[in-house]
């Protein structure tokens, strides 16, 4: 069972949100504060919107984060002065120690 609970100050003003989530095995209620992104998305979804819009919004969010990652990767690439050949010749696998049984 999941529910959202408002946090209020002593004057009754809403100051934040908690997401109540029941642990699947223990059924203990876990209170987890919502992030600023989750809070904004909840404000967006107060009104029912068509499923088509939901798909568009998911795509926009995915594109946004993909752009952020790409920008950061490009920045690191430029700082380290990598070239395509460097990447092709890099050994990126983790070496494992072989133990005999």
Radius of gyration: 23 Å
Write down the overall mean pLDDT. 76
Distance N terminus to C terminus?
47 Å
Sheet bearing the most strands, described?
A: 3 strands, antiparallel
Order of helices and strands: EEEHHH
Strand content: 15-25%
Label the structural class: alpha+beta
How many extended strands?
3
* Coarse shape: extended
Tally the helices: what do you get? Answer: 3
Which oligomeric form is depicted? single chain
Domain count: the total is 2
Looking across the biggest beta sheet, what order are the strands in? Answer: 1-2-3
Helix content: 40-55%
Quick take:
This protein has three helices and three strands, in the order βββααα. The chain has 101 residues and is an alpha+beta fold. A three-stranded antiparallel beta sheet has the order 1-2-3, with no helix packed on it.
């Amino acid at each position: 069972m999941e529910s959202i609970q408002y946090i209020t100050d002593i004057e009754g003003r809403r100051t934040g949100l908690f997401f109540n989530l029941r642990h699947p095995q223990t059924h203990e209620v876990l209170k987890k504060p919502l992030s600023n992104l989750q809070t904004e998305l909840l404000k967006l979804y107060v009104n029912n919107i068509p499923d088509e819009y939901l798909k568009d919004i998911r795509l926009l969010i995915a594109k946004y984060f993909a752009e952020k990652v790409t920008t950061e990767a490009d920045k690191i690439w430029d700082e380290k002065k990598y070239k395509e050949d460097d990447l092709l010749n890099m050994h990126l696998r983790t070496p494992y120690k072989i133990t005999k049984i």
